Amino acid sequence: MYAAADQGFWGLELPFVVRGKEISPLTLAAMPPGCYDGPQPGSRPLTLSAPLARGFDVRLLQLGLSDRGVDIQVDGIFGQTTLNLVKTWRAQNGRPANGIADLALIGELTA
Predict the structure, then answer these.
(1) How many CB atoms lie within 10 A of CB 62?
(2) What pTM was computed for the model?
């Protein structure tokens, strides 16, 4: 929808409100609910922890896996599913299947 509006193929002027929610370029480009902008990608290794790791860096890791064909929900939360998919990715790429997205793996997947 945002691309259509951005390219002039959208008949409605932005912003507008649907069911009490504003639709605007700002809201369309926003982070998913529950995510926040930080820590920066590559500034920490990622793995399952308590509390769960959340953030932009987790989201970019998940997007990197998705871009490489991994069926993953990109929600910015490093939960059990992300752990299992990181383990599988590491094993398929000749690394120990430990579920840790170290800085080298994060750099590879977010480049």
Answers:
(1) 25
(2) 0.67
What is the CATH code for 53-110? Answer: 1.10.101
C-alpha 111/C-alpha 103 separation (Å) is 12
Contact in structure between 57 and 105 (CB atoms under 8 Å): no
Question: String of b and e for 72-106 (b: at least 16 CB within 10 Å)?
Answer: bebbbbbeeebbebbbebbeeeeeeeebbbbeebb
Residue-wise pLDDT for 24-81, tens only, equals: 877 777 766 665 566 777 889 999 999 999 888 999 999 999 999 999 999 999 999 9
Environment class of residue 50 by beta-carbon count within 10 Å: exposed (0-12), middle (13-18) or buried (19+)? exposed
Give residue limits of the domains in the chain: 1-30, 53-110
